[in-house]
Specification:
With 173 residues, the protein is α/β, with parallel strands linked by helices. The protein contains five helices and seven strands.
Length: 173
């Protein structure tokens, strides 16, 4: 009987693994949605400080990206820039956070896509850990009160940006 115990104990583990490989991580809801966004202060690539507290009262689109993230980050960068230009006069801020990236490669990515919204590295990974980021791109839509209202795993499109931001702008401040 004891010789069957070890092989039989492997069966539940294999079943759990099989289930886990079938689940799409994008379908797992974030436990952070509806909660206050984690505060941060980052130094942008052009030497300015950006903090979540300084953006209070604005809708914030917080995008985690990397220059090596291809094709998703390359697809969403132009959409983020277009959307930022369209909404920047309407109490909306976009902040990019480069994670697990080389500074020169990140600067080249910013230049290649002419990104004009603030972008900062997360050198020690603290901000990405605070937001539970497990891949790139990931984007958080934060309301004017500083609560996370949506997490988007994967590239952000113009339509998604517009839909989420318009919804948040339509709410009382």
């Amino acid at each position: 009987m004891w010789r069957w115990l070890i092989p039989l104990s492997v069966v539940p583990v294999l079943g759990l693994l099989a289930y886990g490989f079938r689940v799409n991580p994008r379908d797992i809801p974030s436990p952070l949605v509806g909660r206050p966004a984690a505060p941060f202060v980052l130094r942008t690539f052009d030497g300015r400080d950006v903090s979540l507290e300084s953006l209070r009262g604005r809708v914030v689109v917080l995008n985690f990206w990397a220059s090596w993230c291809y094709p998703a980050c390359y697809e969403e960068a132009p959409a983020l820039e277009r959307s930022w230009r369209a909404y920047r006069g309407r109490e909306v801020s976009v902040v990019g956070v480069a994670i697990q990236d080389q500074p020169d490669a990140a600067r080249k990515f910013i230049a290649d896509f002419s990104l004009s919204f603030p972008n900062a590295p997360d050198p020690d990974g603290k901000v990405s850990v605070d937001y539970g980021v497990y891949g790139v791109p990931e984007t958080f839509f934060i309301d004017r009160a500083g609560r996370i209202r949506r997490k988007q795993t994967g590239a952000v499109s113009d339509d998604l940006f517009r839909r989420e931001v318009e919804k948040l702008l339509g709410e009382p401040a």
